[in-house]
Amino acid sequence: MIKLSYGSSxxxxxxxxxxxxxxxxLATCAFMWSFLVVLYFFAWLAPLTRYAxxxxxxxxxxxxxxxxxxxxxxxASKILYLHVISEAHDAVFDDASKSARxxxxxxxxIGVVWDSSSDVIAISVRRASTNTAVT
Length: 135
Description:
Layout: H1 10-45, H2 50-54, H3 65-93, H4 95-116, E1 125-126, E2 133-134
Antiparallel strand pairs: 1-2
Helix pairs in contact: 1-3
């Protein structure tokens, strides 16, 4: 298994976030297809169980069993896919969080520059009422 770690730049964080969301979508897809196979075999084998054979009026003999299984699968898959896709949409198109990450990265870079700088900065402010400068 590949171990991903957060990088120091916002581009690295964006790449990692995209990889995480792609993995979640892939895992959801694999789970749902496996679940579809399980439901197919359930609908196919359920009427053959001992309970269904002993009780011919059982719900396992119902003609709507396959329809119910497929409908349940459709609803469950759409809910899970919608959750992953909406999270991906928010991550990709959320300008506020991207801007905040980039500004934080810029603040850290400027902080390093100021910390390593040996220059002296003097700030002078002129008062309009007395026309004198304050340093």
